[in-house]
């Protein structure tokens, strides 16, 4: 039975939204689709089972009732890495194959979501190459567009996966480079025997994260405007300058979170005078009452964290980088980009399925 495993060459490339979007598009064309994520990274506990949070969301959106332990059998993060160094689980690939056989029963097409990159999972013999080989799944590379690196990454992936390589989709392409990726880049890939299925443009709404998710990712506490936790943050700015300079800079960017020291009330007030979605105050300092009252009045959540500013900036960058797509509006937006920008008929042809719908 045909299967596609979507992989990337780097973290936080948008795999979850693309996998779910593709699965929904093919489902709407009349195919019975299944889903699996063999190696997860961010486990949550549901129904007394651990499951990758993206896999749990995907199961719900796709209306699947399969066992969570089959959909998301393994996790690789800081905690499990050390555990597996001490004692490796017995035959992980065999377990993944068994779960896959259950999940694929009665399906026309299976979608597998790769791990952080296509090497992740190697210590369990569950890298993308090993999983794809065992399941005879075709490998679709989702590459975050880079002017200098994308060509080499795609060609290297083609060499690495060989006959299992299905082709490439480019993600987060700047609008000014969309024509280039559709034409010259596509022709070059074809001349090298690589299927170029299309491009998805940069979209700030898809790359955004809610205030609540940011607070959770920072282990922070929201102390104002708690009812605004669903507001979307698209970017970060750091407040480590004078008030006048901060005001000038903050005005240039909307829908942002400003990270600054909890004792910098001047910077905090400047940020609140500009289009700011949230303040993250570091060092565990409770803000001045003027700041707190004004933030409450205009509906800007203030998040308190115990970390220093440098550490917090790194954490915010990582949390925004792995922005969640657990939002139906984001999924519908991605589906629109998939319909408009990807050649799904070519994809079906390359995996040997006749198009429907």
UniProtKB/TrEMBL annotation:
Residues 213-318 form the DRTGG domain. SUPFAM superfamilies: HprK N-terminal domain-like (SSF75138), P-loop containing nucleoside triphosphate hydrolases (SSF52540). Gene3D superfamilies: HprK N-terminal domain-like (3.40.1390.20), P-loop containing nucleotide triphosphate hydrolases (3.40.50.300). It holds the Pfam family DRTGG. InterPro entries: DRTGG, P-loop_NTPase, Phos_Acetyltrans/Butyryltrans, Ser_kin/Pase_Hpr-like_N_sf. Coiled coil: none annotated. This is DRTGG domain-containing protein.
């Amino acid at each position: 039975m045909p299967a596609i495993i979507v992989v990337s060459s780097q973290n936080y490339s948008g795999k979850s939204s693309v996998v779910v979007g593709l699965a929904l598009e093919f489902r709407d064309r009349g195919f019975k689709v299944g889903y699996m994520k063999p190696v997860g990274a961010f486990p949550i506990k549901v129904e007394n089972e651990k499951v990758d949070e993206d896999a749990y969301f995907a199961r719900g959106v796709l209306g699947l009732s399969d066992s969570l332990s089959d959909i998301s059998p393994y996790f690789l993060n800081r905690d499990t890495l050390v555990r597996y160094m001490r004692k490796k689980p017995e035959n992980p690939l065999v377990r993944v194959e068994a779960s896959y056989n259950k999940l694929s029963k009665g399906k026309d097409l299976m979608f597998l979501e790769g791990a952080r990159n296509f090497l992740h999972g190697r210590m369990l013999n569950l890298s993308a190459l090993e999983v794809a080989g065992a399941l005879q799944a075709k490998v679709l590379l989702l590459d975050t567009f880079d002017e200098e690196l994308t060509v080499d990454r795609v060609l290297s992936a083609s060499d690495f996966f060989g006959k299992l390589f299905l082709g490439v989709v480019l993600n987060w392409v700047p609008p000014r480079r969309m024509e280039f990726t559709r034409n010259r880049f596509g022709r070059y890939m074809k001349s090298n025997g690589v299927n170029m299925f299309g491009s998805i443009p940069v979209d700030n709404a898809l790359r955004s994260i809610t205030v609540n998710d940011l607070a959770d990712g920072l282990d922070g506490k929201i102390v104002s405007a708690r009812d605004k936790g669903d507001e979307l943050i698209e970017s970060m700015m750091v407040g480590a300058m004078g008030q006048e300079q901060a005001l000038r800079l903050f005005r240039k960017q909307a829908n942002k979170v400003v990270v600054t020291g909890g004792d910098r009330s001047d910077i905090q007030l400047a940020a609140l005078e500009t289009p700011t979605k949230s303040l993250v105050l570091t060092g565990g300092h409770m803000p001045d009452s003027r700041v707190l009252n004004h933030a409450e009045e205009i509906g800007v959540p203030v998040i308190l964290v115990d970390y220093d500013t440098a550490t917090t900036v790194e954490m915010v960058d990582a949390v925004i980088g792995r922005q969640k797509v657990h939002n139906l509006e984001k999924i519908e937006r991605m589906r629109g980009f998939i319909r408009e920008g990807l050649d799904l008929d070519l994809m079906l042809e390359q995996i040997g399925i006749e198009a429907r719908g």
